[in-house]
TrEMBL record:
PANTHER family: PROTEASOME ASSEMBLY CHAPERONE 4
Protein name: Proteasome assembly chaperone 4
Domain of life: Eukaryota
Gene Ontology biological-process annotations: proteasome assembly
Length: 161
């Protein structure tokens, strides 16, 4: 094959193919039903600290990143429900075991969502109040995105009188 034929083939390939899309970006819509992804990013100022959040919703798992004052990745945890007792297993994928900031957050997110959770957390280990506030904001956003199931008997606060 000559270089001209190769160039023409590559041009045809580039014109004929479409880049895969990642689904809606932002905070619109509910969970992806067609196996796509949904990306949500937001920032909150809590306790004189800027927290950055990113949530990526896949069909059967959620990836969440919480960054404190910077865009550093931090520790990475993976959590999933286990059978038969509906417990939750959590492991540290990246980062040491001496800093467990985010480990219990990942466990609670699995219990609330019923989905596998991959959580990257960059919160200082000596700030438990900041970690709790970050988890509250993350859970609040997951609830508004309909990623957290409502419990039976839980009051619906979105109704108007």
């Amino acid at each position: 094959m000559s270089s001209q034929e190769l160039g023409a083939s590559l041009s045809d390939l580039a014109l004929g193919s479409r880049a895969p899309t990642a689904g809606p970006v932002g905070s619109s819509g509910g969970p992806p039903s067609d196996g796509g992804t949904q990306v949500t990013c937001f920032t909150e100022d809590l306790h004189d600290v800027t927290l950055h959040f990113q949530i990526i919703r896949f069909s059967k798992q959620i990836y969440a990143w919480v960054g404190c004052n910077s865009a550093k990745f931090g520790h990475l945890y993976a959590a999933a429900s286990t059978r038969p007792g509906n417990g939750v297993s959590v492991t540290s994928v990246l980062g040491g075991t001496s800093d467990n900031t985010g480990l219990s957050m990942a466990r609670r997110l699995v219990l609330k969502t019923g989905l596998n959770i991959v959580l990257a957390c960059n919160i200082p280990k000596d700030s438990p109040m900041l970690e709790a506030a970050a988890e509250r904001k993350l859970v609040e956003k997951l609830r508004t995105l309909s990623y957290i199931r409502s419990k039976p008997g839980e009051a619906n606060t979105s109704t108007t009188a």
